[in-house]
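User: Can you predict the 3D structure for this chain?
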Amino acid sequence: MFGTIVYEVEDSIARITLNRPDKFNAFTEQMHKEMIEAFKRADKDPGVRCIVLTGAGKAFNAGQDLGDVQGQDIDFGEFLRKRYNPLITQMRKTEKPILAAVNGVAAGAGMSLALACDIRLASEKASFVNVFVSIGLVPDSGGCYFLPRIVGIGKALELAMTGDKVTAEEAYRIGLVSKVYPAETFEADTMEYARKLAKLPTKAIGLIKRSMYKGLHMTLEETLEYEALVQEIAGSTEDHKEGVAAFFEKRTPVFKGK
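Assistant: Here is the predicted structure, written as structure tokens:
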């Protein structure tokens, strides 16, 4: 049982809900531990083929709960290394698609958390705020890694330096999110999107995720070679055989994630 999150599996989708609505789902030490455990569980479960991360109530995640560390003499570097960095690393290692269903404000490390997901879907009421600069800090939890890669260095610097709020519409315009849905249908629309991903060849998606992220740090020649290696793996999966058979039989493939 978890205390700060809700973990549910339905229709091959693991839904992780940050569940501290009275605190805008702000991070605590317990939440970090539980989120890491939830992502590990979803990654190991062959019945899970897509992961949705969202927040309860009006917020997605408001960053660190300052009350959780009030009165402590914080070593910021060690704090990140022990709490935030393991979570972001685990999300990257999870070879299943992770959707951020951003239902409300994503601020500070909460914005970085959304950026660490593979795809971001936003409610029309969602917003993103890089608030670190407002308290004299630097974006962390992967914020300096993901943001420039998603929106470009110029826009990333602007958002990080000014701390300006980004609305859902603006987030879509700059490529920060893939879809914006009406608030009243947001949950249903998000789950429909997730169900589509859950029906796709999960092994191939995991290899795509691994290869794309690795490709950010490799030369073209290295990427071409890595593509050849992972294509050997993908080509031996049951889903590849099903995809080819469905093509010749002129039917919709039924992938099993194997």
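The radius of gyration is 19 Å. The chain has a mean pLDDT of 94.
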